[in-house]
Amino acid sequence: MLKVNHVDMSYGDLQVLWDVSFEVRQGEIIVLVGANGAGKSSILKTISNIKNPSHGEIIFEDFNLVTAQPHEIIEHGVIHVPEGRHLFNEMTVEENLIMGSLSQRAKPRRNEMIDYCFGLFPRLKERRKQIAGTLSGGEQQMVAIARGLMALPKILMLDEPSLGLAPILVQEIFEIVRNVSKEGITILLVEQNVRQTLAFCDRAYVLENGRVTKEGTGNELLNDEYVREAYLGI
Amino acid sequence: METFLQTLASGILIGGLYAIIGIGMTLIMGVLNIINLAHGQILMISMYITWVLWHYFGIDPYMSIFITIPTVFLIAEGISKYFLHPLIDKDSILPENQVLMTVGIGMVIMELARTIFTSDFKSISPTTTLRGEKIDIPGYLQNSIHIANISISIPLLIAFSISIFLTLGLFLFLTKTDKGRSVRATAQDKGAAALMGISTAKITILTYGIGSALDAAAGSLLLPIYYLYPDVGPIFTVKAFVITILGGLGSTVGAIFGGLILGLAETFGATYISMGYKDAVGLIIFLLVLVFFPGGLKRFTKV
Fold it and tell me: What is the pLDDT of residue A164?
């Protein structure tokens, strides 16, 4: 469904991605794990074409994302929920959701999707008229995910949705991710919460210094000697 | 008491007009993150267009907003696209340089006006000649209405009403349409706006146009009650700047109150202190707000 082939990317003179290749298949939950600065977020930014790769190709359902405009990528259903949530802090929860459905594909189903999202996150329904900046961290993350769903994603890319949340909320967010996946939406998840995400993902890729160093199913990696030592501290 | 009410009425009316100048500036400030120091000069363009339309074509100054708004909108789009946006696009260029660019644009506009229209003071003359025929200014422009013992000048009243109308229109645009919401989204978080598929470049250019169009409306509305010369621009740039600081940077609701406060401060200053010190009163209030409410009125509002 999504193929990333030999991608290099640089911020100015600083190259952060080196020959990155991986594949996401329909319906999977894929996790990219790695330490700070390994290039996980940079991969998502390259896929949604906020950053242009200097080399390589990214193909989504026969459509080349490298040469596409960001709004065309969204039109094709590749949706990026950024790290740190990045809500529109002075807008209400409902307006934030509306902002998720600007694409021509999503706009006609806007009201239906708002109801759907409020069904998924009843807590947001209570707060639909509240200013997003005043919500708690967990609620803000829910808005961020809901805003992503509003765009009718075929593949939803989530960048560290558990960042800065209490453990119980992290559980809740991962539960939501699994539910979204059951709706048939493919998930590409970037996480530092290695143990928990490896436990429920289909496959995972390990990134180190901008290179893919390991790949395998969640269980394979959980039992991998190197991964256990480097990321799980066992 | 009558003097007080009379001053209050005039202050509110002129304040409404100032408000749309301030809203234009604050909108640009919110989205482009720059202080548009060419704001008054853009207003001056509209005043000159209005003057030319009356003087050479006999067009009612209030009707001319239908010409000045789109014309200035297009001029501003051009300025924004070819002069400001190339500077915003590059991360390596500091925002200070964009502000310098607006200063430069303001100077060019001012000197162009001086070249074309000379430095003479101009205002709406009571009559003009069109193809040998004398045309009188529409009567309502010279009249006032009287409520109790307060006289309200009709030009000011019209200017105030149109300002309210435009402000309401802007609010509906910003809160009820996708384009308008995109403008607010871009002001609040440019990166996230891009992820929503919003072309932030287009929104930035559009916003400069909308801000300038409001400015243009104010220019046409001001001409019947003001005078016009090439150096009039900086006066209004300063006023717009004061209003945005009073209201809190980037706050549209704040700008409305900022405009009203400035209008009231000026008229009360003119009545109770001296006509010559009316601008000084506005600036003193500006300094007091900076010292005691550094965030402006934004802290009392949400939008």
Answer: 86
Handedness of CA B18, B19, B20, B26 (dihedral sign): positive
> What is Dmax (Cα atoms) for chain B?
61
Distance from CA of B189 to the nearest CA of A (A): 6
Q: Quote the pTM value.
A: 0.90
Burial B275-293 (b: 16+ CB within 10 A, else e): eeebbebbbebbeebeeee
Query: Residues of chain A with pLDDT > 90: what percent?
Result: 78
- Contact between chains at A98 and B181 (C-beta distance less than 8 A): yes
| Assigned token pair, B93 | 């260029």
Contact B191 A131 (CB under 8 A): no
- Cβ of A103 under 8 Å from any chain B Cβ? yes
Quote the ipTM score. 0.90
Largest Cα–Cα distance of chain A, in whole Å? 51
The Cα B186–Cα B208 span in angstroms is: 13
Question: What confidence score (pLDDT) does residue B91 get?
Answer: 67
Q: For B283, phi and psi rounded to 5 degrees?
A: -70, -35
DSSP state of A109: G
Note the pLDDT tens digit of each residue in A158-193: 999 998 899 999 999 999 999 999 999 999 999 988
Q: Where are the alpha helices (DSSP H) in chain B?
A: 2-32, 39-57, 65-79, 85-89, 95-117, 154-176, 178-188, 190-195, 200-222, 232-247, 252-272, 278-292
Point out which residues pair with A59 in neighbouring strands. A3, A64
Structural Rg of chain A based on CA atoms: 17
DSSP-assigned letter for residue B93: S
Tell me how far the alpha carbon of residue A209 is from its chain's centroid. 20
Tokens representing residue B206 in the block:
């559009």
Question: CA B126 to CA B142: how far, in whole Å?
Answer: 9
Provide the pairing of β-strand A203-208 with A211-217: antiparallel
**Which residues of A are less than 8 Å from B178 in CB distance?**
98, 102, 107
Q: Write out residues 195-254 of B within 8 Å (CB-CB) of A.
A: 195-199
**Which element (helix H / strand E) includes A211?**
strand A211-217
Q: Which residues of A touch B192 (CB under 8 A)?
A: 82, 86-88
What is the predicted pLDDT for the residue at B300? 63
Report the pLDDT averaged over residues A65-70: 91
- For testing the chain B interface, which of A47, A78, A86, A143 should be mutated: the one with the most B CBs within 10 Å? A86
Strands ordered across the beta sheet of A55-60:
A14-24, A2-11, A55-60, A63-64
With a CB cutoff of 8 Å and minimum separation 6, the contacts of B245 are: B258, B286, B289, B290, B296
Q: Which of A48, A86, A102 sits opposite B198 (nearest CB)?
A: A102
- The pLDDT score that the predictor gives to residue B303 is 46
Query: Among residues A194, A160, A203, which one has the least CA distance to residue A33?
Result: A194
Nearest to B40 by CA among B65, B72, B74: B72
Whole-angstrom Cα distance, residue A43 to residue A45?
Answer: 5
